[in-house]
């Protein structure tokens, strides 16, 4: 029987409810992951390696705080998601731009790695549901899965937009249509909810990446020319506003629950 502190359950699920706001913030975070990585690497001139080290260190700190908490805290959770989005993008960029690994190879490798994470998670826990992230081990599997969904999404998005020359607009349409198709299949064909969630979660990464590239890239490259600085700033502001609103709502529900319990 497992009794270690590492597997001691938190007081509640450590992942937010899957609502429309969840998906909105997720897509915004993935877009920031794409534009912020480019901003730090190119605009600030930090370079790919320095950017990777700095963002990797920040992610480790955010995850330490996230794991230390006993319940879901919106600000900490979504900060970790934004940072892991940036790091996932940088992993792919380091392999493709730094080491010259073809995008079809990184896409294939990350697919295999993500499948291995899900398989191992299921073998140990017998579930992949995000509604039961109530032990440290499940939380570890969850964040590993999230990391490699971002890395895979970056590689797959770049593969379609650049290697296959679909362009940012068409790539965005393709991934948006794929997500809509998953939603319709789930709604009318009643496929497994956990499977539908993770497929949509993976697809939102290249959707966000395509959106970020479309908005930030120069007009001559098929983008809207807004630049990585402006795009990152606008999306971060929207994320902060949504997270603050979510935090206020969550605090109100918890206070109401405490009041009802005391009565």
UniProtKB/TrEMBL annotation:
Signal peptide start and end residues: none
Residues annotated as transmembrane: 46-65, 72-91, 103-124, 140-160, 166-186, 193-212, 224-245
Keywords: Membrane, Transmembrane, Transmembrane helix
The keyword Membrane appears for this protein: yes
Name of the protein: Membrane protein
Source organism of this protein record: Pseudolysinimonas kribbensis
